[in-house]
Each structure stands twice: as structure tokens, then as C-alpha cells.
Amino acid sequence: MKMVRDLTGRFKERPHYEAQELDYECETIICTFLRTLYGQVKFPIQTNDITKLIEKHASDLDLYADLTEYGMKVEGLTKFIPKKKPQVCISKDLSVSTWGENRLRTTLTHELGHVIFHNYLFQMEIEAPKSSLQICKRDDIITSSKSPGRDWMEWQAGYTCGAFLMPATFVNGSTKNYCRSQGIQVPLKSSSSHKEGLIEAVANEFQVSKDAARVRISVLNLL
Amino acid sequence: MPERSVTFGEYIASTRKSKSMSQKDLAINLEISPQYLNDIEHDKRTPSAPQLIDKLASILDLKPEYLYYLAGRMPEEVKNKKLDEKSFTQAWHAFRRETEGKK
Fold first, then answer.
1. Which pLDDT tens digit goes with each residue over A16-60?
2. Contact at 8 Å (CB) between A117 and A156?
3. Given an 8 Å threshold on Cβ–Cβ distance, is A62 in contact with B34?
4. Where do the DSSP E strands lie in chain A?
5. Is ipTM > 0.85 here?
6. Alpha helices in A58-194 (DSSP H)
7. Which of the four pLDDT bands, split at 50, 70 and 90, describes residue A148?
């Protein structure tokens, strides 16, 4: 990680992480946490355990928040508060939905990324930052991990979301196992007829949507 | 007058977290929905039944009388004193000694 000038004007300087650095950090955090809970590392991580990990690093997690005042597509937000741990709010509509378990998991880990990687920046600010709310819209949560040119905070949180749910070492292992079972080579060609099979295998193993699995496999250059 | 250090919801949430329980785990033990427990922990609702307070005290190993106090289920003159747990416990024991002495 190195500090670079923050062109968004949010801070004077901001952290720049290489993708591999975020992969390493997230994998260490998630594996250490799972070992503490169970003495072993097993995926998929349970949604319940993601909430425990957030509560370890945040002062509050409101899983049934009314976020409509921030816009209809807002499903999660992190409030950074001077001299306190951040607060995380998840939309009630998402938490109570019967269809949204995968979305809930990606939203939770996206906010976890903000909590772990961005809170210290707000704590270091001498003057109160202009905005202490990081509002995350549904459309940005998965796609933001693909394009580092956008808001760096959203890109980092988007990338860590995938890295928490699907740590690199484990996705690499799953991909190798899948390819071995199919008698094919890694990385797969994007035109490969096995592409969808691999995406489905990763989505099932890590309990994520196919979209999230596709993005993760792609950013890890396995496709 | 001392400021009350915590609300009912904050006290439940912090005790639950100190025992490494998730909201869902505790809600299952209490036989209530996680959403209802979330509302209680964020002071959006207070427990509707005394049985629920007793259950919370039992599962989280807390003093039920202090939970009743935080939930506002005490006489007015006690309810508004904004006592922390230690001060409340002292006052409670003094009250018990007094009432038992009168018997």
C-alpha cells in the first residue's frame, strides 16, 4: 500500500492498494476470524458470521434500517464518526427479503470493507471531513470491483467484498479442482464452453450470485 | 443527577456482543424474530412481555431487576433517576432491606 494524492478531494492523501494486497489482507482477516470461531477455515462463510465480524469492528450494525431517505437503490451505508468506531446500516427491505440472501452477503462484506480499510482515514482527519457517510447503491456493489477508475473508496470496498467472500487462494483451488475434473487447463478461455460451469461451481461453493462469481474469477485472471 | 450510562437496547446489544453471539443466535434462543430483537437493541421498541425480559436476563446472565429498570418498568420515582448498574443495584438492595424489615 502507498499513500497517493486523493483527487476526489475527500482527503489530502488516500491509500492505494494493489489488488493482491487487498486479497492478502482480506484472506488473512477472514481466515483468522473463522479459525477463532471454529478452529478451521471452511467456505461458504455463514451470513451470521459476517454480521459477527462487522460487529467486532463497528460500533453498531443495524440490519433493518430505513434507508429510503438516501434513495431507493441504497441497500447499505457506513457512517464514519470522529473518535468512534463506524456504524453500519443495511436496508430492512434487503434483510427481510426471501430472495436476497446473496445480495445481503455482498452488501455486508462491502460495508465491512469500508469499516476495515477506510475508518482510520476519517479518524486521522484533523478537521471534520465534508462527508462522513459512505452510501452504497446496489448497482455499484459488484460492478465497482471491476473498474478502479471510479471512486477509489467504492472500488476498494467492492473489491474487498469479493475477496472476503471468495478469498483468492480458495478460488484458485476451486478453479484448479474444477478444471482437473473437466480435464482442462487454467486459465479458461473466455470462449470456453466450461466457463459457465466454473462460474456456477464457484457461486455454489462460496454462496454468491453468478454475477459476483464471474467478476471474482475474472479479476483473479482465471478466465 | 448522574446520566444513565446506557439504554435498554444498548445494554442488551453490548452484552450479547461480549458473549460473541450474533443477533440471529440470540433471537433464536429468545424465540423472537431477528428484526424484533434488532428493534429492541436500537431502542425502536421495548419488550412487550415481562417473560421476554426474564428470558433475556437468563440467557445473557443479567440481573432481571436492572433490565426491568432500563425498560422503564419501575415506579416513576425510581424510573427517572438515570442510575447506572452499580448505583441501581445499591438502591435496589436498600429498597429490599427496607421492605423486608417492614414485614
1. 999 999 999 999 999 999 999 999 999 999 999 999 999 999 999
2. yes
3. no
4. 2-5, 13-16, 60-65, 74-79, 87-91, 133-137
5. no
6. 92-96, 101-124, 138-143, 152-165, 168-182
7. low
pLDDT digits (tens, 9 = 90+) for A104-133: 999 999 999 999 999 998 888 756 555 577
Place of cell 446472565: B61
Q: Do A48 and B22 touch (CB under 8 A)?
A: yes
Q: CA A9, CA B83: separation in Å to the nearest integer?
A: 45
What are the chain B neighbours of A61 within 8 Å (beta carbons)?
A: 23
B96–A contact, CB cutoff 8 A: no
Question: Cβ B42–A62 below 8 Å, yes or no?
Answer: yes
Q: In the 8-state DSSP scheme, what is residue A193?
A: T
Interface test with A, best of B23, B26, B28 (most A CBs within 10 A): B23
The answer to whether the beta carbons of residues A51 and A63 sit under 8 Å apart is yes
Which pTM value belongs to this model? 0.88
User: Which among A214, A204, A162, A167 has a CA at the least distance from the CA of A41?
Assistant: A167
